[in-house]
Amino acid sequence: MSPEPKIPAHEHVYRTLRARIMYGEMTPASPLTLRGIGAEFNVSMTPAREAVRRLVAEGALIMSASGRVSTPELSNDRIEELASLRAMLEPELGARALPRVHPALIERLQNINNVIAEKIVKADATGYVRANLDFHRTLYLRAQSPAMLALLETVWLQAGPTMRALYSRLPRTLASEKHRTILAALRANDERALRVAIQSDVISGLRMLLT
Question: Is this prediction's pTM over 0.85?
């Protein structure tokens, strides 16, 4: 067997930083420098610059006029916008997934929701964000709508640090309770109930941050 092709340095840096941001491993307004990225990944400035450029284009990082790079610190208007995008995209993806939902998938989603409950009890912010997105992505992959899912992941990416900040404000059982409502709609094969349950889940979180 031929060896797997090696991932270019800039792609490795990009994927790693992207995952950190999406899963809330970085808090809002966290600064980054090309020199620091290069030192961490043992790469030159060129791969570091390319990775940052792509993340800025996706809205995962913000670059000021002076060239300072940081994770987003969302305004109230931006939070509302991202919440509205999730409220439009995610119920539609859930509805498209519903005809392809089977008992094994529901069981897998239930297991992920159990993990979410454990992360909340342990106050594991990063684990919570990661498991929460895993719950939604696992369902939406069944929609077989890759363009729509890619757009949604961009929204998740921009909101990652903010979701990390939100964690401390959430009631300890909120996320897993709302997911149980989604699971009930899936078991009942009820599209209308599923849309309502997903919309309630995805907009309640970010809007709790509004000040």
Answer: yes
